Amino acid sequence: MAGLIAYGAYVPHHRLARADIAATLGTRAVKGTRSVAGYDEDTTSMAVEAARGALTADGLRPRVGQLFLATAAPAYLDKTNATAVHAALSLDEHVLAVDMAGSVRSGLGALVTAARSAVPTLAVLSDLRTGLPGGTDESAGGDGAAAFVFGGHRDGAPVIAELLAHDTVSDELLDRWRLPGAPASRVWEERFAEEIYVDLAGKALGAALDRAKLSADAVDHFAVAGLHARACAAVRRTAGVRPEAVTGDLTAAIGNAGTAQPGLLLADVLDRAQPGETIALVVLGDGAGVLLLRTTDALPAHRAARPVAAQIATGSAPVPYATYLTWRGLLDREPPRRPDPEPPYAPPAHRRNGWKYGFIASRCEKCGTRHLPPDRVCVSCRSVDAMTDEPMEHVQGTVATFTVDRLAHTPSPPMLVVVVDYDGGGRFRCQLTDATEADAVIGARVEMTFRRTVTAAGVHNYFWKARPVRFGAGPEED
C-alpha cells in the first residue's frame, strides 16, 4: 500500500492584524490576521522547519530518496534552494534535491510527483506572500510551509493515509501572473476565471472519484486551496460533498499561504481526522488537481508533534504594519550606523557544511565532552581526532546568560544574543529569535531553529538560532 507516511507544518510566530493595514492606509477594515515570516525567515528556512516536523520518526530521515521544494518565492534564482534544505536536514548526499518553483501550482506538482514516486519522497511546500501596500495579496496573503513524505510499507514506515487516486487538469489561464523582477503579481478581474475553475475542479474531482470508485458524499474531509477566493468558495458549494465535510480554509487566522496553502490545509485535516476517513484535497491554479486519501489506523500514533491549530494559537506576536513593510523591503529605513555585514564566503562555508547547515557538533570518544563548533582536539582531555559527529538541531538548552544589543546591524533591533547550555553538555553563543526582551532571561528554555542570519552582497547566510520553547519537549528528530 502506497501513500503518506509522515507530515509536518510550520506557521510563523508573527501576526499582522488586517485592521492595522486599514488604519494606516485609510482603507476599509477587514477582520482577522495574517501570518508573517520573521525578518530572518524566507521560503528556504520555513521549508526546513516544516520538514523537521515531518521527519520525526525513528529511521525515517535516512530512507528519504528525493526532496522536492515547491515555492513561488524562491530565495535564489539560478541556484537550487532545495540543496540548502537538504543540507540542513543532513540527508544522504545521493538524495535528489530539486526545486519546483515559479508558480503556486508547483505545490500541486510536488505532491503529485512525490505520490507517484517509487522511492520515499519528501515534498515541501513553502511560500511567502507579499503584495503591494493596500492590495488584496498583502492583506489576504500569509506565510508558511508544509512537508509530506510519501512511501509505502516496503519503506519500513507505516502508511498513515493511503493514496486512493489523484487527477490533474491543466489549462492555460491568464488570471494571475508576475514578470521576473516585478514586486507583486497582477490579477485579472475575478469573475473571468470563477466559472472556469469550477468546471476544471469538477472534471478533476470526478475523475479521481471514479478511479477510487467513490461518490462525492463518501468524502469525510473536503479541502479546497487556491488564490482565487471566489472560485474556491464556489467549488466548496457545488462539489456535491456533504456540507459538514467541507473544512475551513484558515485564511481568517493566518491568510492564504499560496503554494503552501494546500499543505497547511491537508496537515490541519490530518491533525483531526480519524482512521478510515476519506480526504479530498482540491488545488486550483492554472488548472485543477485532486488528491484522494484514506486515513489508516496508524494515523493517531503518527500525527505531527506540532498541530497547525496549536501553532496558530501560540503564534500571536503582533507585528506593527511599518515593521512588516520594513521586513519585506517595501519601506527603506535607515540602517544602524555600523559597517555593512559581510557575506559568507563559498570555500570556508562549504568546508563546514555539516556545522553551518546541519548544526552537527562533535563528541570526544575518550572523555565524552561535547564541542560546539566541532573540533579535532578535545578541550578536556586533549585527545586528537577522536571525535564522533553529534547532531544538535533537536537538542534543547537553557539560557546561561544573555545580552541586548541595540547597536548591532539587524532589521529588527535590538539583537538578542544568548549563551545556551545544552542538555547533555556543550555551550554555544547565538542569536535569540521569535522573542522579545522579556524572553531573554537566565534559565529560559530554548530550542534551535534554522534561519537566514543576513543577506549581504546578494548572498544569503543561513545558520541556526535559538527560540523560546513553546511546545513542551518538542519532536526528537533523527
Automatic annotation (TrEMBL):
Where are the annotated coiled coils located? none
User: GO MF terms on file?
Assistant: acyltransferase activity, transferring groups other than amino-acyl groups
**GO annotation terms (biological process):** secondary metabolite biosynthetic process
- The ChsH2 rubredoxin-like zinc ribbon domain is annotated at 359-383
SUPFAM superfamilies, sorted: Nucleic acid-binding proteins, Thiolase-like
ChsH2 C-terminal OB-fold domain: residues covered: 396-451
Which InterPro entries would you find in this protein's record? ChsH2_C (IPR002878), ChsH2_Znr (IPR022002), NA-bd_OB-fold (IPR012340), Thiolase-like (IPR016039)
Which domain of life does the UniProt lineage start with?
Answer: Bacteria
Q: What is this protein called?
A: Hydroxymethylglutaryl-CoA synthase
This chain's source organism reads Streptomyces flaveus
